[in-house]
Amino acid sequence: MISLPGSPATSLLRVLFLGLTTLASPLRAQMEVHVSTSLTKLQAVEGAEVVLPAWYSLHGELSPTKPKPWEVPTVMWFFLEGKDKNMSQVLTYIGQVTMSEPRASLVHSMPSRNVSLRLRDLQEKDSGSYLCFVNLQDNQGTVKGQSSKHLELNVLVPPAPPSCHLRGVAHVGTNVTLSCQSPRSKPTAQYQWVRSPPSSQVFFAPVLDAIHGSLSLKNLSTSMSGVYVCKAHNEVGSAQCNVTLTVSTGPRATVVAGAVVGTMVGLGLLAGLVLLYQHRGKALEEPANDIKEDAIAPRTLPWPKGSDTISKNGTLSSVTSARALRPPQGPSRLGSDTPGTEA
């Protein structure tokens, strides 16, 4: 609960409250604050609103009446926080002025003997003890009485949407666990697992843990495939989630998938190595071929034939095919190839 801003006025109100409760004499207690016995402990849902009922009356009155013209009430509502019961102001009405935190207001316009408090847009942190204090004076400032009453408020929270998970490998013959957990719930949520149509099924202990939200499925078969719904619920609301179970058949899916992937990777690496080897082989062969094609073949010495003669027109003519090995002739001197004089 958010307390009123700290200011001299609110500090004065605290002092006033403590002073009035300390100094007032029982003889002057001529009024009393009332709270219905059945409404001293209230429950409400987070996000809604609640009314903390309280009213005061003068002693000797048989039924509630309108305030008398001389009545000048001072009304204070306090929230007692935590185990230490630290007091914080929720609303104060004094001198025809009302001060309150944004979500708090009086149900009835003042002056009124009905001093019920309305709280809107409840939050879980609003749970706790509330104190209603009324000090009654006359128009002369004389205290006619004072009284206070406590009420308990418990703000309940519907389960927040849970999250569903599958733990394990859904393979024929194996075991899996379906888990479900709501992150926020007051009181603590209970859990129920069901299987959706067309194969509807409701689960109970021992396969179902309603406290922790787990469902154990053992010795899976393909017929157990389907949509499983978890419902988290408490006394003020519910929420749900679902998980789809697909039971695989044959060898374990993970082993098969791993083998297939490993084989494909191995084949890919092998093909890459072959292509790399072929590419490097071709790269080494091409320079060698270039050298052979560009090289000039060496000259071979002619093998003159023994029967070759030089004709008068300077051409060789062969009269026999027999070859005679003779040493190569050196270059002839100028004019040596002129035919000789006939005898």
TrEMBL record:
<dbReference type="GO" id="GO:0005886">
    <property type="term" value="C:plasma membrane"/>
</dbReference>
<feature type="signal peptide">
    <location>
        <begin position="1"/>
        <end position="24"/>
    </location>
</feature>
<keyword id="KW-0732">Signal</keyword>
<dbReference type="InterPro" id="IPR003598">
    <property type="entry name" value="Ig_sub2"/>
</dbReference>
<dbReference type="Pfam" id="PF07686">
    <property type="entry name" value="V-set"/>
</dbReference>
<keyword id="KW-0812">Transmembrane</keyword>
<dbReference type="InterPro" id="IPR013106">
    <property type="entry name" value="Ig_V-set"/>
</dbReference>
<keyword id="KW-0393">Immunoglobulin domain</keyword>
<dbReference type="InterPro" id="IPR042757">
    <property type="entry name" value="ESAM"/>
</dbReference>
<feature type="domain" description="Ig-like">
    <location>
        <begin position="158"/>
        <end position="248"/>
    </location>
</feature>
<keyword id="KW-1015">Disulfide bond</keyword>
<feature type="transmembrane region" description="Helical">
    <location>
        <begin position="255"/>
        <end position="277"/>
    </location>
</feature>
<keyword id="KW-0472">Membrane</keyword>
<dbReference type="InterPro" id="IPR036179">
    <property type="entry name" value="Ig-like_dom_sf"/>
</dbReference>
<feature type="compositionally biased region" description="Polar residues">
    <location>
        <begin position="308"/>
        <end position="321"/>
    </location>
</feature>
<dbReference type="InterPro" id="IPR003599">
    <property type="entry name" value="Ig_sub"/>
</dbReference>
<dbReference type="GO" id="GO:0007156">
    <property type="term" value="P:homophilic cell adhesion via plasma membrane adhesion molecules"/>
</dbReference>
<dbReference type="Pfam" id="PF13927">
    <property type="entry name" value="Ig_3"/>
</dbReference>
<keyword id="KW-1133">Transmembrane helix</keyword>
<dbReference type="InterPro" id="IPR007110">
    <property type="entry name" value="Ig-like_dom"/>
</dbReference>
<dbReference type="GO" id="GO:0098632">
    <property type="term" value="F:cell-cell adhesion mediator activity"/>
</dbReference>
<protein>
    <submittedName>
        <fullName>Endothelial cell adhesion molecule</fullName>
    </submittedName>
</protein>
<dbReference type="InterPro" id="IPR013783">
    <property type="entry name" value="Ig-like_fold"/>
</dbReference>
<feature type="region of interest" description="Disordered">
    <location>
        <begin position="299"/>
        <end position="343"/>
    </location>
</feature>
<dbReference type="GO" id="GO:0005912">
    <property type="term" value="C:adherens junction"/>
</dbReference>
